[in-house]
Amino acid sequence: MGNVIAFRSKDFVKWADGVLEGVLRRSPVGSGVDYLTKDFFNWATRNSIYPLHFGIMCCALEMAVASAPRFDAQRFGVIYRSTPRQCDVLLVNGPVSKKLKPALRRLYDQMPGPKWVIAMGECAISGGPFYNSYSVVPGVDQFIPVDIYIPGCPARPEALIDGFIKLQKMIKESKKGLLTGK
Amino acid sequence: MWINMGPQHPMTHGLWNLRIKVDGETIVDAEPEVGYLHRGIEKLCENRTYTQIIPIADRLCYGSSLTWSHLYCMTVEDLMGLEVPPRAEYVRVASIEMQRIASHLMWLAAYAADLGAMIGFIYTMRDREVFIDLLQALTGSRITYNFPRIGGVAHDIPPNFERDSLRACAYMEKKLKEYEDLFDGSKVFMMRNQGVGVLRKEDAMNLGVTGPPLRACGVKYDLRKDMPYSVYPEMDFEPATHPDCDCYARYRVRMDEMYESCKIIRQAVQKMPKGKWRIVAPRNAPARTGLGRVEDPRGEGMMYVVGDGTDRPYRLKIRSPIFVTVSAAKKMLVGYKVADVVAIMGGLDMCIGEADR
Amino acid sequence: MGERGTRFLPEGMERPASRIDDVPEEKVIRSLLDSFPSTVTDFKKLGKGVVRARIERRDLYRCCKFLRDQLGFEHLSMISAVEYDKRFEIVYHISCYGSCLLLELITSTPKDDPSVDSVASIWGGANWQERESYDLMGIKFNNHPKLERILLPKDTLYHPLRKDFKGGG
Hints:
The structure holds 3 protein chains of 3 kinds. Chain A is mainly alpha-helical. Helices cover about 45% and strands about 10% of the residues of chain A.
């Protein structure tokens, strides 16, 4: 009992993780909880996609317009957040130069899972009109795994909203429980 | 202590990094860092034909892309010694002024959102759609148009364009009065703007600052009036200036410019002559140099092209107003607080696409 | 720009007062010829209010100081660098607000020694433009306060706009 009362914080974290691992994740209790809550959490995740406030080039203007009154992406639950720690989706909307590549990879690494990446516009898909330039990476999927590609130069705001809806469908089909990950 | 603001920051006027040295909350030194959007356009242009560069020139500054493709076409027409038909000149002027209003409205939307007046974002984006619809009817696209050609414009104006433009101008002038009430009547907006980011007249001229920040220091210099190009000598308008050199003056200059642009659009669509809208340009350019200068919504844009007898330019140099204005950031930021960075840098209307090329 | 600009100038249009009156372009050419007789050559009037001149690089700093202080050219618009077969040419576009003039000043350097004096202490706006010419074309500017790369990452080894760089475009 003395062990439990006088824990150091590092040991406490290790003990708590062990309990979670054993009791919840591996045992039938975990799968039971997941079975009950999977649909609910999945519905919540796909209806509250939070992209990052990150604009690179022309498609960023269309991204801004997509949250304007005419096209209104907020009715789908899309709210832009300023810090990557609070986001689900990284929306890459322009050409990635060699100077920007480490910064973008760092932003992707800072986002907590589950996370998705949308490549918006020709420049993010393959380099766009600058595909053979000395300072543009030809496509963002060279260093970040991409889930949705939205073509267009620039991609219209309706296409961006269509991309969000396709992402919602994708999240719905790949139902994964939060505890066991299955 | 040096703080990095960027390259990802919620004050999303482009992709750049501002390093500021702070002592408590006061800024002691500042060093902007650009280059995150460098695409090597000047090298790309050496391997494209003259017509293939027009869409690339659009993507230089995507906030006002018609201005840049027109500037490019004017430069190549100077190189080749071409005479553009008058109807094309009037269509160019009308579309450039519509693009100027759309660009200033986009600036106002982002500026208001950054200063906390989210209502400004909602209203101005809605009204910007009026002009984007007009430009879409004229050119076929929403932001990067690929509309001008070397020797004129791509096609003629659509039916009912004159009626729709006049309606849009009347609507815009009413709305501008509403915005003035909204922003000038807001105590917080005025406190965050008046007396903030002062740039003296001599510093502005020496540091190469052009456009609305220069006219907000009291210098009455507008390329459309002082070194006119196209059919601007036949338009009746006044360049907008303001004697204080702070953020409020820059905001005021841009609002006045929107009024003047409505006046110019009215005159351009009503005085438009009949005739051809395009002449066929030769494929190869002579071995000479050409120079073009234009009053961009952000300042003085220039292009210098060197031809060598083939159908590709030998060298294309682009002067971006924002590249030079951002280098003057240090003068405007030192002595103010960290919270003023948003108002000062937002008031410069930065579109980093043209700075980095 | 170009000769066609003259047809649109209305009759009796007033020029704002400045240190240069009468025919402004001729006044500028005459002052430059008087002060720098051997180094400034090859004058050409390119259009209404635009004059081109060539200058040798050893007199560039003195001439720019003369332009700013004596002739009232307050604004440096653009610094371009062009590479030809046997030389580099650096083109300065300097404008005067008072009399609405643009002066195109061209200086050349040999291929193996691309360096000129920096004018960043005369016009502050030249600072970043010279850094950009150094970054992309490799022209060295003597006495520049901070000649570093600005658009490309700091550890890049090449100068992309040179004709022997085949990497882009």
